[in-house]
Amino acid sequence: MKICEKLCEEAQNVAANLARRNGIRYSSGENIYVCTRTKSLSSTSAIRECCFKAVDSWYREIENYSFETSKKLKKNQTIAHFQQMVWRDSVRLGFGIAQRRDGNIIIICRYSPRANVFRSKINAKQIMPVQTQ
Question: Which of 34, 35, 45, 105 has the highest Cβ tally under 10 A?
Answer without folding.
Answer: 105
